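To close the chapter, one final illustration. This time we ask the reader to focus less on the individual chains and more on the assembly as a whole: which components sit near each other, and how the overall shape emerges from the parts.
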Amino acid sequence: MTTIDAAVGQSDPHHLGHDRESSYHQHTEGHAGGGLVSKRIITGYGFWIFLLSDIIMFSAFFAAYAVLVGNTAGGPTGRELFNLRNVALETAFLLVSSFTVGLARIGARAHSGSWFYVPMAATFMLGAAFLTIEVQEFAGMVARGAGPTRSAFLSAFFTLVGCHGLHITAGLLWLLTMMAQVFAKGFRADILRRILCFNLFWHALDIVWVAIFTVVYLMGVAP
Amino acid sequence: MSYSEPTSDLHRTDAAPGDQRLDRAEIAEGIKSYLVGLGLSILLTVMSFFISGTTLVWGPSIPVALVVLAIAQMGVHLVFFLHITTAPDNVNNVLALAFGVLIVLLVLAGSLWIMAHLNYNMKPMDQMMPMELERGPGARAITAKRVVGPATAASVGPGVSGVIQAIHCNASMQVKAGQLCAKIDPHPYQQVSIRLGALANDKGQHHPPTGHKGHPNPCIAISWHSVTGQVPPQIQQDLPTMVGRPVQPVTGGYGQTGSSDYLIKALEGHYQIPDNSVR
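The assembled structure is written out below.
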């Protein structure tokens, strides 16, 4: 690194220089410039890539559902099976839980115990309520003979929505783990990184749910 | 400041996905973004649920509207919940997101496009017809005109022209050689016969017309017989309408149409079309 580079780095409002010797950036992190990138950014970015690959997996399930939605094999269609009141409740629970999980992250950032625990507990309750409604819906469908083996449409439906439900279940377990870890270890840097990843995960699940309630439920019952 | 302190994000060159850029690490500041996102999401969700059940808009536009609302809500989530911005510190995150969206669109559009086209092409041929017939009413109306033709066709007609008096053959009736199918009005030929007879008498060469098998048959019947085989469809259709109409004779080994030679032969009695004249 030369002094010219350092000058460029200082006059570079978009931080394109990534000059670790710049006095302005005491803790700059470059890309190829040899700088250190904070662990928080590496972790977050890596988890971001994982989430995108997860969403690509969901897109394959969505494509399968869209292709098979008409193949009911004489069985019940979505219009006969779906209860939009339940879907609206599920959507509301998940949306508000996205809000509360954001509050929990802000609380964790501020190292505020109450601002972390209370929103996390609320998120858990909302997620559990969502899961309860979904499990009841699935159980009701199986009870009336509309299980995943009934038709290709129902196989695709249970795969897609069930996969999201499994993600929610895993998220709830992760949520409890994070609360326990904060309780046991406090707001350490590594714990905060995990809370950041959990936030990303939960928000991504809400985005997937937006696609599900639109494509599966609302389009399924639309006239 | 340490690398892992979230509050040190302010002067970093990059931001972790989901990290908020706050001028002051205040709880109220952070909540504001989430509140805006929550409000917008609720608005878009309510609109989606309303539009899906409404009859106020044109039916086919509902799925389009739902998709647009869903994409808008995903955008709201990305901006206000995940804090994905267009700022330079988010370039890496946005690029990864753009690549993910590209793959998602390729998977969705490619799958739907290909499967929609293969759905019909990959059906076995022997299942094509039953599958088509299983469609519900009004799914697709197919109108087709079918023409059923005979394996072989034979021209059958009267040897002389005249007005048909009676029809004895019906459509799709099995007929045999020599069977009477139609009768032509003999009256004009009786006139000719009388005149010819008078001419012969005048010349002293009386040669009375003889009937079939040599029997004397002054009463001349000019008939039209069929040959063995199925009456051709065009004849079948024409038969009922031929009564009372003049018909043209079929040319065969009996001379030219309308020639006196031909007429005299025909006047001799039942006129039978030989097999070799109609093939």
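Chain A touches chain B through 71 residues (CB under 8 Å). Residues 1-37 of chain A form one domain. With these observations in hand, you are ready for the problems at the end of the chapter.
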